[in-house]
């Protein structure tokens, strides 16, 4: 832990030194100015409303993508024809650039829920493929044991599937949590829904307010990190019990 | 109950494992399938459990609930011995499970995950699980593997005591079993 703090302190010091050397707040601001700007922003209602709206859109997209990925993977695992039907579609979904979806959703549904749909579309393939891989890795001998001993339903999921599935699910959720924030905010920057993090970043850019841009970025990093930690804490606790 | 396996033939690919094998399993019965390794003893148990289908012949009278000691332990490794028993018999009271555990694992901490157990301890848990599960027939595939003489005798006595009219079908090289069970040679004469 001490080592981590030391490494972080060295990087922050380097950042501050470079910012001082550049000495141009349009090109680069240092960590001190970023923190001061962020604190100033937190005093406004606009900041918190933007955070809340973006959080609901991106968090909602994450939840929707996770639920859809889990459901589709379960159906694909249970029924081979379903897998044969769904697999290519999810594979295509995974390969299509996010920006193509951003433009299509802007045309089809407007900008208000753009971040929700983009987060969902980014998260879904990650959850789908990892869940499917996790289900496929369950020991067939343990499935036979469950069959013989009439271990069914929730008990079968909890004791036979979950021990193998939880590792791939944890990995998938860690990846998906990072990806949903990156893609969700990028979608907001393009789509410009009012009172959103993306909109705040866009306005910082057009005003050449690099301090606000860095402050928004710091807010996203903190929000994404906090969301990931809290979500994974409860997820791990739930699969342990 | 009477379960009948009649004129069973079973092959895996090119390898014919059972040819015209027949066996009758009666309530209270105890049977020990014997024969050299690879002759098809485990296949017979899998046919009884419904995990394999015969290529020819018929199986009738298979009970609804069965339990098994598999060739491998097949325990939920992250659960304790106590919980491994509880998941196959959720209605069994905690005190009863503890009593059973004390029979084959006296003085052991049975609340630890079974992943931390020795091979012999895991084997005894899989025997306990099979005997504690609600069932009308029990198959036991080499149940005494990895047990020393003392634990082997304790396990056998426990199995016979817990039988409760349920037919037992063993595969084992333990000649002590022949005192209690009918010998069913596989690959030679069959009943």
Shape field of chain A: globular
- CATH H-level superfamily title of chain A: MetI-like
What is the strand content of chain B?
Answer: 25-35%
Overall outline of chain B: globular
Detailed description of the structure:
The complex is a heterodimer of chains A (241) and B (191). In chain A, 86% of the residues lie in helices and 0% in strands. Chain A is an all-alpha fold and 241 residues long. Chain B is of the alpha/beta class and 191 residues long. Chain B has a single domain (2-185), classed as Rossmann fold (3-Layer(aba) Sandwich), CATH 3.40.50. Chain B has helices spanning 41-49, 81-86, 94-104, 119-132, 149-162, and strands spanning 2-12, 15-26, 30-34, 56-60, 66-69, 137-141, 168-171, 182-185. In chain B, the strands form 2 sheets. Chain B has a 5-stranded parallel sheet, with helices on both faces. In chain B, strand 6 (137-141), helix 5 (149-162) and strand 7 (168-171) form a beta-alpha-beta unit. In chain B, helix 3 packs across helix 4 and helix 4 runs parallel beside helix 5. Chain B starts with a strand and ends in a 6-residue tail after the last strand. Chains A and B meet through helix 7 and helix 8 of A and strand 5 of B.
Task: Quickly list its features.
heterodimer, A: 241 residues, mainly alpha, globular, B: 191 residues, alpha/beta, Rossmann fold, three-stranded antiparallel β-sheet, 8 strands, 28% helix
